[in-house]
């Protein structure tokens, strides 16, 4: 299906790996030119090169920290009038003991996963509205809707982001700007693979065995972790021309780990 976004321009923050990289790939496959930020230059440049080579669409790496003023200025200078904004970042570490969370942990999580995407929305959404078309997709976490101690840092800040995104979506929908949030659960991202390989090694078991145990403990109905490309494809769908009447939504993608009628 043609998503009707060929020729559009997108900023994708945190796009060198995991769900961010998958979002870039899905958008590029639809003909969207992408400006991609991440802190690690080597991995970012390689990811952009590979996606550009596969799709034939320009993909521009911007090695910087999008949670800083200087980083945001660099990204917005490279692509000052995007049609699409996609925001994600490396999630904070799991927090099995909420009492062990330090003030510095909170400040870092707030800067990266709340204040940065809010600043980007403030910078680009008015221009989208003036041009009569825009898409914003924030990749957050299922913990924003279903809190848990293990995701206290990640869930709380992104719950605030989802709240802000919905509020802004109500104002800008009449201008053709569509704003939505994805709430993924456990996926085979670089972050998860690193963490679960470490957990498995400490127990003397394999990565797959550790994942299977986690699925049982957390009652994930699909009995597996998701693929990041699934999330990337939903980013593209929420950016599509067909999504013009879907706004202010927070879509859970968790393999049936959580229970809710709505």
Automatic annotation (TrEMBL):
Transmembrane segments: none annotated. Pfam families: adh_short (PF00106). Belongs to the short-chain dehydrogenases/reductases (SDR) family. This is SDR family oxidoreductase. It comes from Alteraurantiacibacter buctensis.
């Amino acid at each position: 299906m043609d998503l009707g976004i060929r020729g559009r321009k997108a900023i994708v923050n945190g796009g060198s790996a995991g769900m961010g990289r998958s979002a870039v790939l899905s958008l590029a496959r639809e003909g969207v030119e992408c400006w991609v930020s991440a802190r690690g230059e080597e991995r970012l440049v390689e990811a952009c090169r590979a996606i550009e080579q596969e799709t034939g669409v320009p993909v521009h790496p911007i090695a910087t920290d999008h949670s800083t003023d200087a980083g945001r200025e660099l990204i917005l200078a490279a692509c000052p009038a995007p049609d699409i904004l996609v925001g994600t970042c490396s999630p904070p570490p799991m927090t099995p003991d909420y009492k062990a969370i330090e003030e510095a942990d909170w400040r870092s999580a707030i800067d990266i996963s709340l204040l940065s995407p809010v600043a980007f929305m403030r910078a680009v959404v008015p221009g989208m509205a003036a041009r009569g078309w825009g898409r914003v997709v924030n990749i957050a976490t299922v913990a924003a809707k279903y809190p848990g101690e293990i995701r206290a840092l990640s869930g709380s800040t992104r719950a605030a982001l989802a709240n802000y995104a919905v509020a802004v979506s109500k104002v800008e929908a009449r201008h053709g700007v569509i704003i939505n949030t994805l709430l993924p659960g456990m996926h085979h991202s670089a972050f998860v693979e690193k963490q679960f390989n470490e957990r498995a090694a400490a127990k003397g078991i394999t990565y797959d065995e550790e994942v299977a145990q986690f699925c049982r403990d957390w009652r994930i109905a699909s009995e597996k972790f998701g693929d990041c490309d699934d999330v990337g494809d939903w980013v593209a769908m929420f950016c599509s021309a067909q999504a013009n009447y879907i706004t202010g939504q927070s879509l859970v993608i968790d393999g049936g780990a959580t229970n809710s009628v709505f």
